[in-house]
Amino acid sequence: LALYKGDKAELLKLIKTADALDLAGFLPAGQEEFKAALTEAKKVFADENAMQDGVNDAAKALEIAMANLVAKGNKHLLKQAIELAEGLDLTKYVDKGKAELAIELREAKKVYDNEAATKEQVAKATKDLNAAILALRRAANKENLAAVIEKAEALNAADYTPESFADVARALESANAMMADGSLSEDDQAQ
């Protein structure tokens, strides 16, 4: 029975890859296992008499430990989305969408404050908050409509035929309904 020293080329590649990892970019869960596997892999690599099974086992353990590391999410874009949402003057937007924005903003802040948030969670929170911001519709500017209503209300019915003033009255009723409608957006105003 002949015993042969193990080929350590693959193990060396894994050790170099593992050494290059910045653990600050990963969640704490799994880091101790990773460090232990890396230490063991380095011991096996340094052992001149390590057999192939030992080399393979160390390489496999290090691969698994690296695969189990979970990257932290980059929160820069999430922070920008939160700041944008918080800076919006919601009085300039129709009510529809405001509740959804509040929910997504609250969720985004939870993810932002969570040190253990994964990159997937950060990406989802950023996407959902941006979608809620984009779903908002600016409220229609009703200044011109208010001026027209004021002029129409100042009209004297005696100066018009009953038929023509009935048209004005219907238009005034419609204009007042538009003024009271808080759901009219700039998109509606353009139509």
Judging from the principal axes of the Cα atoms, what is the shape? rod-shaped
Mean pLDDT: 88
Largest sheet: none
Give the distance, in angstroms, between the N- and C-terminal Cα atoms: 89 Å
Q: Would you tell me the structural class of the helices and strands? A: mainly alpha
Radius of gyration: 33 Å
Any overview of this molecule?
With 191 residues, this protein is mainly α. Helices cover 64% and strands 0% of the residues. It has nine helices and no strands. The chain has helices at residues 9-20, 31-46, 52-67, 76-87, 98-113, 119-135, 143-153, 162-180, 186-189. Helix 2 (31-46) packs antiparallel against helix 3 (52-67), helix 4 packs parallel to helix 6 (119-135) and helix 7 packs antiparallel against helix 8. It is rod-shaped.
Indicate the topology:
Elements: H1 9-20, H2 31-46, H3 52-67, H4 76-87, H5 98-113, H6 119-135, H7 143-153, H8 162-180, H9 186-189
Helix pairs in contact: 1-2, 1-3, 2-3, 4-5, 4-6, 5-6, 7-8
